[in-house]
Write a structure and sequence with these properties.
Elements lengths: L1 H17 L3 E10 L6 H12 L8 E7 L1 E5 L5 E4 L14 E5 L3 E9 L2
Parallel strand pairs: 1-2
Antiparallel strand pairs: 1-6, 3-4, 3-5
The protein binds zinc ion.
Zinc ion binds next to loops.
């Protein structure tokens, strides 16, 4: 499952960052083009962290819209579907401004 491997990557990053401390909350930023379903991510996160050092650590998901800019007419469009076409002139000469993000934005830690 796609979301499960994303959660494994998040857990590895948080564990490495936390060291001896306990993580209470992790904020991840995920671009629209990653096609990750937040509810599924939350479910996988609970399943993955249950019974581990990360049990009880909340997962907060910030979704980043996919935005492209057209090189022909300069229009910036937010993509509802992963189709790299300008919404104004339908040119496919576009650059991706956001939407591919997958990063751990912050981790709340407390001394164990
Ligand atoms: Zn255009």
């Amino acid at each position: 499952m796609h979301e499960l491997s994303l959660c494994e990557a998040i857990a590895a990053t948080v564990s490495r960052h936390a060291g001896e401390r306990a993580a209470t909350c992790v904020v991840v930023r995920i671009g629209h083009l990653r096609q990750a379903v937040p509810a599924t991510l939350s479910f996988c996160w609970r399943m993955l962290t249950d019974g581990t050092d990360l049990a009880g650590c909340a997962l907060e998901i910030e979704q980043v819209p996919a935005v492209i800019r057209c090189r022909d007419c300069g229009t910036e469009s937010t993509l509802e579907v992963p189709l790299m076409l300008c919404s104004s002139c339908t040119s496919d000469d576009v650059e991706l401004l956001s939407g591919q993000e997958f990063l751990v934005a912050s981790v709340d830690l407390v001394e164990a």
